[in-house]
Amino acid sequence: MQAIVFEKTKQLQIQDIPIPSLNSGDVLIQMELCGICASDIAALKGDVSDYSPPVVMGHELAGTVVESRHSEVKIGERVTVNPMLTCGKCPNCRKDRDKYCDSIEGIGHDIDGGYAEYIRMPKHGVDTGKLIRVPDTILPEELIFLEPLGCCLNAMHETIFNNTVAILGAGPIGLIFTQLLKRKGLTVYVFEPLPHRRLAAEAVGADDAFAVTQEDINNLQQITDGGVDTVVSSTTNNASVISTAFELVRKGGYINFFGLSPEGETLQINLEEFHYTGHKLMASWAFSRASLEESRQLILNESLNFKPLLTDRFPLMQGLDAFDNAISHRGVKTVLCP
To answer: Which CATH code, of 1.10.443.10, 3.90.180.10, 3.30.540.10, 3.40.630.30, is assigned to 2-149+287-337?
Structure first.
């Protein structure tokens, strides 16, 4: 089968590799779609280190079971995955904090993922509830967003919101946050340098979408009488983005640095100033099993509009072009299909 293999930093290859063979209890999934995630791009660039190459990347996936050696899984079921395979027994796993499990293996990070024609879900993953089934009526174009939506929902539960929010970045994550926050009845302002993404933000309900200029920042401060209650950074948290977040938030407000940060990026705070501005700083990442189930229900209920998000499709054989497209931000969400 064809697969896109992350060989090492800055090296991605399209290869012919064997279709995964199954052991007792395993499941074979035929891929329908798999989204390119910002974390995969960061790993390719060398900005993050939580990958174990060589590995087939891809964890935002939708597929169909074509072979099952597990008594509880039927051929023909439409599925996606919780890509964090963990022990299921430690204190963190028992408390739905799988991402802190010491024995975690990530699908598309440490074991082969969805940038391929087929993927194997091991028995342990099925037994610990990491195979997520949905009705056939759910389109692959919606199902690939179950995992990123679960990440956003997890962050929503961890963050304090009042009335106004600024979202930094109108990529797929920023557009999901925008919709979730509008569902809560909040006023949402999006900051995004690319015009086509600002249009997408407005299409999914943002109250206004600004370019990231000093004039825009000053305008937002004036509109909100000193800044928004909460900032959610859903883009790469480099020095420029960090500075913008602090310019947009009011005194006593909240900042969630949700987006990835390049390895080695630091946040320096004048503690005296921090004391008197009263900012509340946090970071959210990944998801819980509960937030993935909540995500599944929202998708089943057609609660969000994913059409403005999925903009660019590439076959596996054009996988390198697909990554170039995603890295260049030519659309919003780039996906691969066999």
So the answer is: 3.90.180.10
